[in-house]
Amino acid sequence: MGKFFRANIRAKIIMGYVFIIICLGIALLIVSGRVNALQKEVDFVSSHDLEAHDLINAIQKNMVDMETGMRGYIITGDVQYLEPYDTANKTWLDNYNKLLQLVSYNPAQKESLERIKPTIQSWIRTAGDNVILMKKENKQAAIDDYFKQNSGKKLMDQLRTQFDSFLAAEKQLTTARAEQLAQSNKNLKIVLFTLLGIISIFAIIVALVLSNSITSTIKQVTRMIRYITSSEGNLTSRIELTSHDEIRELAEATNEMLGDLEKQNWIQTNIAEVATLYQGINDIGCLGGTFISKLAPMLDSVYGVVYLRENVGEETRYVKIAGYAASGKDPAAAVFRLGEGLVGQCAVDQRIFLIDNLPENHVKLTSGLGVSVPRNLLVAPILVDGHTEAVIELASLHTFQAQHLTLVDSLQEKFGSAITNVRSRMEVERLLSESQILTEELQAQSEELQAQSEELQMQQEQLRMTNEFLEEQNHFSEQKALELKKAKDELEDYSLKLETSSQYKSDFLANMSHELRTPLNSIMILSQMLAENNGDLQMSEIVEYSRVVNAAGKDLLALIDDILDLSKVEAGKIEIMTDDFNVTELPQLMKLMFAPVAEKKGLDFDITLDPDVPNVIQTDGQRLQQILKNLLSNAFKFTEKGSVMMKIALADPVRVKELLHRDPAEKVLAISITDTGIGIPIDKQQVIFEAFRQVDGTTNRQFGGTGLGLSICREFTRLLGGSIVVKSEVHKGSTFTLYVPNAIETEQDHETPGNDSHGGEIAAAVEERTIISTQAVEPSAVSSVETIISDAEVIHSDAQLFQGKRVLLVDDDARNVFALVTALETKGVTVDVADHGKDALEMLGAGAEYDLILMDIMMPVMDGYEAMQAIRGELHMHELPIIALTAKAMKSEKEKCLEAGASDYITKPLNMDQLFSLMRVWLTKQVKKH
Fold first, then answer.
1. Phi and psi at residue 213, to the nearest 5°
2. Residue 142 dihedral angles phi and psi, to the nearest 5°
3. 131: left (phi > 0), else alpha (psi -120 to 50), else beta?
4. Among residues 192, 427, 739, 869, which is most buried (max CB within 10 A)?
5. Which residues of 444-461 are buried (b: 16+ CB within 10 A; e: fewer)?
6. Please, are residues 897 and 857 in contact by the beta-carbon 8 Å criterion?
7. How would DSSP label each residue in 337-380?
8. Contact indicator for 96, 119 with CB cutoff of 8 Å
9. Do 410 and 381 meet the contact criterion of CB atoms below 8 Å apart?
């Protein structure tokens, strides 16, 4: 029907006649089909029913022939009587099968016929073949007996009854089919007359529809044209027709004209609306915001920006003054110069830019429900007298229409004039405001001058009296002003340093996180592989994995030590332990440590010791070696080819006085480390010694590291009373010179800032003889310790000492417990575990005896301090050795543990050799006592 209405008038008339003809053809086809169906039903009755009746009669005749032949043969004994029997016996089954196929469509008749077959077969088997066989065998007595039983007659009577029933049913079916034929004939007549009626009705409907489709479209066009031309007509109305005839062409032409009129009306209306917005606006920012907020919805835009021309000197810039949907994090640029970007180029070309298919990341529209991506961009200049006064930029989710561009083009001059007018009003208001302010100031000054004139005479006498006092205070004020200016400069400098330090600390934390995670990653991966090992790893692989895990753990420990050293330095709690240090051993120590590094990198490594260098000086040897290790490590790290040189000599007296402000006659070591590496820029040579500062402090720097080495070196050098001087040239190399004074001479003449005399913080193992303290040690204590060691070496080996000993391990960390129990059990030690201090007290209170206690400090329920105090106080176990295991490495930790009742203490992560050494000492004491 849709195609019918889209045709022209001539085609509609032709299609109407064609439709009537088609309906007649369809009616003929339907009638012909019904006649053919009726003929098929007649043929079925005449062929199927008659054939079924004939087959039933044939089967009955076959049974009669078999019965007659059997009886004739029994009576006469002549085999000729068996010929009808044999023929019927061969043909009855074929007739039965044909009949069964004919009635297979009717389940009832099929079932009735299937009941006849067993009866026939039973008669043939019992009455036919059996009796004939008895006759052939001359069993006359059996034959007489059979006929006396009369079983054959009963089967034949049953068979006749079944045939009669089946035949009666077939006759009923035939009668039903005849009645159905009569009804079908009647229905055919009804269908024929019905089709004629329907076709007539359809012909009338087609004629009415055809005439109505022609006249209605004409009336609709006429009515719409009259409505639009009336005074209240709406230009948005359109003539809507479903037909595609000549009248539709007239309607479409009328609609096109209305569309043009609507666009023009829309443009003029919006121009008038925008023009009314300018009234009463005296601020250029408010003008831009009002304009873009009104224009953007008109153009279906979701984003808009207004850029206004500003002249800064000789440069012309376009500055963003307003936006639409651009609050919050606005991606729009704030300023454009002429020719810069689309905004600057639009200002130069003075034409509209229209861009489609923007990339997805150009600008995004955000709302409470999600984020959308505008795909169309419009950039237009606002012209005044041939100059680009402003540029507007709009983005839309839809394509900009031609009427949108026409509206923007029409608003260019009007908006430009508004900008000029508002700017003029703003300038007039500014000048007026300044004039009013100046007038008020002049009036106030006039009044003030008058008052001052009146007071001047009164003050002359006071001025004369205070003049002398002011002259005295003038000098004092100038001096204070200088001091305040100096303090202000120092505060500004300190503030700048704090800001820079905060940035470097952030970079340092990022770098430190990377440095800590690197070995920790190796430990986690390899330990997981070892934990998940199902026997697939070979022993050599397990040993290698364990070696890598141990090395990574040592790296972590070294990093933590560096961090602790730096924190101690910043807190002013670092310790200097002064003793005799053999300078002649220093070359060999450094050579053994860094020769493999030099060989691996293919660098030359030489150490020179001047003959006039004293063999021994008083200093902290451990800190001195740490400084030199850091300097050499940096030298090898930043040197890819060439050499690293270390020279030990006496410092130049001039440099001693200049750098250390000491007597030039003092003997000060000058240890220089020279490399041919990348060098250090001049502006960074001082920065590298500051805390948390590096030449490259980013996390992706080329050479890695934490940047703590030189900071620690500088502080250690300061505590040793020395100085570090660097001389470097980029791409040629660097020379770091360490000046170390003799501590004896230093103490006689100077006092080193920040140098305290407290003992070392490392665990008090007797075998750790490298720890040197400036505190005096009582001779009796030294002799007793040496006696203990001597006795231990003579009396017991490790196996004899540890075997069978009972140790109580108090720790809440399952991983530490597993590691310690495994290590101690390899020595033959029996280990009991308590999860916290309270659990340990209960075990000790129950009467358990132990040779030694390993006590963790930080635990839930009851920590190590409380537990040790309770063991010594409440349980009165004063002789039982307790070794404290602590992860705290601060200065006061050892004293705090010993005060709580610990016999000794060791810091985590544990060095097992050091732990066994401590246990050996205290277990030996227990053996001596027993």
1. -65, -30
2. -65, -35
3. alpha
4. 739
5. eeeeeeeeeeeeeeeeee
6. yes
7. ETTSHHHHHHHHHTS-EEEES--TTS--EE-SS-EE---EEEEE
8. no
9. no
Instruction: Tell me the helix, strand and coil percentages in the chain, rounded to 5.
Output: 65, 15, 25
The continuous run of DSSP H or E covering 831 comes out as strand 830-834
Cβ atoms 870, 914 nearer than 8 A? no
Cis geometry, peptide bond prior to residue 909 (ω within 30 degrees of 0):
yes
CA dist 655 and 613 (Å) reads: 17
Question: Nearest-CA neighbor of 853 among 809, 896, 814, 885?
Answer: 809
Q: Which residues pair with 900 in a beta bridge?
A: none
Residue 213: CB atoms within 10 Å: 20
Burial (CB < 10 A; 0-12, 13-18, 19+), residue 415, is buried
With beta carbons less than 8 A apart as the criterion, state whether 691 and 566 touch: yes
Per-residue pLDDT at 724: 93
DSSP 8-class letter at 769: T
pLDDT tens, position by position, 119-167: 787 787 777 777 788 877 787 877 777 777 777 777 777 777 877 777 7
Who's near 156: CB < 8 A, 6+ residues apart? 63, 67, 123, 127
Structure-block tokens of residue 117? 């077959």
Asked whether the predicted pLDDT for residue 83 surpasses 50, the reply is yes
Tokens of 469: 């006092």
| DSSP string for residues in 12-71 | HHHHHHHHHHHHHHHHHHHHHHHHHHHHHHHHHIIIIIHHHHHHHHHHHHHHHHHHHHHH
Question: Amino acid identity, residue 191?
Answer: V
3-class SS of residue 627: helix
Containing 336, the helix (H) or strand (E) segment is strand 335-337
User: In the 8-state DSSP scheme, what is residue 859?
Assistant: -
Q: What is the pLDDT of residues 724-780, one digit of tens each?
A: 999 999 889 999 999 999 876 555 554 444 344 333 332 322 233 222 222 323 333
pLDDT tens digits, one per residue of 268-284: 777 777 777 666 677 78
Query: Cβ–Cβ contacts within 10 Å for residue 642, how many?
Result: 15
Range 30-51 average pLDDT: 68
CA atoms of 740 and 718, how far apart (whole Å): 9
What is the three-class DSSP state of 3? helix
Residues whose CB is less than 8 angstroms from the CB of residue 673 and which lie 6 or more positions away in sequence, other chains included = 628, 631, 632, 635, 644, 645, 646, 735, 736, 737, 738
Q: Spell out a b/e string for 382-400, using b for 16 or more CB atoms within 10 Å of the CB, else e.
A: bbbeeebbbbbbbbbeeeb
Q: Give the pair of three-digit tokens for residue 472.
A: 């005295």
At 920, the pLDDT band (50, 70, 90 cuts) reads very high
SS3 755: coil
Distance CA 855, CA 457 (A): 89
Of 237, 236, 288, whose CA–CA distance to 265 is shortest?
236
Spell out the residues 6+ positions from residue 26 whose beta carbon is closer than 8 angstroms to its own.
none
Contact indicator for 380, 389 with CB cutoff of 8 Å: no
Q: Which residues have C-beta within 8 Å of that of residue 6, sequence separation ≥ 6?
A: 242, 243, 244
At 591, which amino acid appears? K
340's tokens: 């810069």
Q: What are phi and psi of 795, to 5 degrees?
A: -85, -45
CB contact at 8 A, 285 and 279: no
**pLDDT digit string (tens) for 181-192?**
777 777 777 877
